[in-house]
Amino acid sequence: MDYQAILGLGIFFIVFGLASLFWDRRERNAYYNSQLTKKDVKEFITHEPERRWLNAWRIGGRISLILGILLIIAAGVLRLISP
Question: What's this model's pTM, rounded to 2 decimal places?
Fold first, then answer.
């Protein structure tokens, strides 16, 4: 029974990680597509200067996915060893 809370947290972090990765893709496309309407298209083509805040959702999503997978593995191990 103790593993159910850990399993729930693992599932939550996996869902949150996937949502973050999709949100990152949407934000990146929206930002660079808005650059098409401006006169200076160089930033759109070269992505220079790089926008660090655009990477935050991707990094957070990857961390959440890794944490979720580790929690699900821990819940599986607890389920196997608990009576």
Answer: 0.73
Hey, what long-range contacts does 19-26 have (CB within 8 A, 24 or more apart)?
19/61, 20/57, 20/58, 20/60, 20/61, 20/64, 21/57, 21/58, 21/61, 21/62, 21/65, 23/57, 23/61, 24/54, 24/55, 24/57, 24/58, 24/61
**Mind listing the pLDDT tens digit of every residue in the chain (83 residues)?**
678 888 899 999 999 999 998 988 888 877 777 655 666 666 666 666 666 777 888 888 999 999 999 999 999 998 888 87
